[in-house]
Design goal:
It is a single chain. The mean pLDDT is 89. 7% of the residues lie in helices and 51% in strands. The chain contains 2 helices and 41 strands. The chain has a domain at 46-117: Immunoglobulin-like (Sandwich). The strands form 11 sheets. Strands 5-4-7-8 form a 4-stranded antiparallel sheet, with no helix packed on it. A 4-stranded antiparallel sheet has the order 10-41-40-39, with no helix packed on it. Strands 11-12-13-14 form a 4-stranded antiparallel sheet, with no helix packed on it. The chain has 451 residues and is mostly beta strands. The longest helix has 26 residues, at 10-35.
Length: 451
Amino acid sequence: MEYPGAKFTHPLRFAMLLLFIAAFFVISPTVILYSAGYRYDFKNGLLRETGSLSVDILPTNANVTLDGLALTESMPIRLNNLTPHKYSFEISAPGYYSWKKEIEINKNQTTYIKEMIILKKGKSELLNKGFFPVISVSPSGRYVAYLEQQKTTNNTLCYIRDLTTNITTLAVRLPTLSPLKLIWNKKTDFVVLSSTVVPYTTFEIIDAQHPETHQNIVNINPEPITKFMWRNATEPELYYGTKTSINSYLPNSELSRQISKITFLNWYNENGTVWALTYNTSTNRLIIATDILGFTKTFASFTNPIDATSSSLTGWELLAVQGSSVLVRNNEQGQFLIVRDDKQYAITADTFNISPYNNWWLLTNQWELWTYSDGGEPSLLSRLDSKLMTVVPLDEYNTLALSTEKDVTALYPYYYIEQTLITKPVITMAAVIPTRTLYYSNEEGLWRINY
């Protein structure tokens, strides 16, 4: 039915209906193909699939080139409609090392370059001449503690450097050249200076805010100290063990108290929860239990992978707890064991430390670097052709400084890219991450470089 004088006649309405139907069948496939990553190549008259590239790194003024073509976009960069294949990718900025990598763009996918800071071309500055075997940075990033061995006097000097004032204070002078270590409290600026072998004959507690005063708890405890660790709390509290007991020491009040008697092979204290390692002689199994002070709960047990001699049992040590994972080590065999309630992973390693940003466990031997995160599996991150000496995290993205017999390189673990940072071998090093400063020592003395 049509009204007299109507312009929108039945044939016209029918024609528009056919037009909308045709448009639907033309536009819909186009939208679907576009959203799926297909693009029409007008030059070659082809329909092709494409990929995307997303770049978001620091510094934000960095220049990016793709197959030699400089991109004009500023950070963050998002490129669509890229032909899927391998590209030569480079990031550069004035005063920084260039970062180069071959990247692959896949169809219907986005390749991400993110969570990364490229390194500055810093110039090393000599701070002191001498032999400095140990350097350690406080978790707050305010203090650097370092040891100097003076072979002419057979003394070891411990210095505390305040990075806010650049004032260096001599904290302790010890009449020994024996190896020593520095262990910081994670929440406060207290540090323990101790010998490296058990029992600890040297044991000094230093408050970095008042480095001229220090406390020696070896003198107040009649039994030799066999293990110690800081409690992760705002009030500095040190747990230390002897052959018969676990004790607590409060440096601010200089009070010591017994927490528990020792009836187990080894222990670890996680914010007041004691983890204990025991051995069942009838089953030849090592047992990890929690809350040994009250209600005991078995976390995991595992067969002793080493001959069950008395010496091999005393060599086991609890080192770290992270969620559902516990790290133990047999000091006599050089073997680390990551223990979970359902499985264990054995790794041959010499040293162990934890990245401060994501609790990444870093285990190293002379030629390999292994990493582990709770709930995953150990991963071989790098195998080197030169003897690996030290591994130090450099930033919140877990860029790592690897010290070898030849030089120091920075490893970007998510991209497997290395960049030479120091061209000479170093003795030891430590990073002040907030200011991106690396302190290191070599045969000439103590150095500092910004990265």
